Amino acid sequence: MRQDYFSANNIKYIDYKDIEILKKFLNPSGKIISHKRSGITAKNQRALASAVKHARFLGLLPFIVK
């Protein structure tokens, strides 16, 4: 089983402004990767999804990539 990225790097809060980390969990078309493929916990997956959606709304991340 894979190690949770956020636990491994001692990240307590998933910040919507940290787009470099958020981009690691998006596929090339801009969709959020499932927690089964990414290996993060369900709790962190929910926080990640919320952060990605917040960043998209503020224009920091694209909704779709063409």
Task: Report on this structure.
The mean pLDDT is 93. By secondary structure, this protein is mainly alpha-helical. The termini are far apart. The chain has four helices and no strands.
Radius of gyration based on Cα positions? 11 Å
Helix content: 40-55%
Number of strands: 0
Which range does the strand content fall in?
under 5%
Unreliable parts: none
Summed up, the helix count is: 4
- Mean model confidence by pLDDT: 93
The dominant shape is globular
Keywords for this entry:
66 residues, mainly alpha
In short:
With 66 residues, the chain is an all-alpha fold. 44% of the residues lie in helices and 0% in strands.
Secondary-structure map:
Layout: H1 5-8, H2 19-23, H3 35-38, H4 42-57
